[in-house]
Amino acid sequence: MTILERRYGGKMRDLARRIRTALYRRFRQTIEVSEVDSMSDDKLRVSFMASPRGLDEIAAESDYVDVSITMLISEHSDGELGGINWGLDVVRGSGEILGGLTPYNYTDQVWVARRDRAAVETRWSLFRTVVDRDVEVVVNQIATALGRQPRRAA
Q: What are residue 123's DSSP bridge partners?
């Protein structure tokens, strides 16, 4: 485990748990939500799955949604050296992208230098702040994908 994985892994899990908890509290009667799980190979990824309650074990891939927060490493993404960013992905089991967020994606500012602790913390704070602000949007994306009535915006 790298220093960055140790420093941000718990923060990533906490953020995924906030989304999971909001989904569970609103839809516990109709949506099953797995626990948050972590995986680390060439990048750290924390995720959970949501599916309509009562599905049999051979449910179609379109019947569940995967929500993940990933520590993106530039060398594994586009080959640029020394960069880091974070991504939130909301994807149907079939691969259909329902939503997501990666700060400055598709710009030349997408990566911050992994060795610049202040820049990394600033990027994490930006990512966390936007995801925290949009938890209800993410919950509504998941609910809609699973055929549940999302909450109307106030």
A: none
What amino acid is encoded at 119 in this protein? A
The residue ranking higher by pLDDT, 96 or 154, is 96
Mean pLDDT, the chain, whole residue set: 90
Length of the chain measured in residues: 154
Q: Render the chain in DSSP notation, one character per residue.
A: --HHHHHHHHHHHHHHHHHHHHHHHHHTTTEEEPPPEEEESSSEEEEEEEEETT--TT--GGG-EEEEEEEEEHHHHT--SSEEEEEEEEEETTS-EEEEE-TTTTSTTS-EETT-HHHHHHHHHHHHHHHHHTHHHHHHHHHHHTT--PPPP-
CB 40 within 8 A of CB 70: no
pLDDT of 71-118, one tens digit each?
A: 999 998 888 899 999 999 999 988 999 999 999 999 999 999 999 999
| 127, two tokens | 């990512």
Residue 143: other Cβ atoms inside 10 A: 20
Domain ranges for the chain, please list them: 3-145
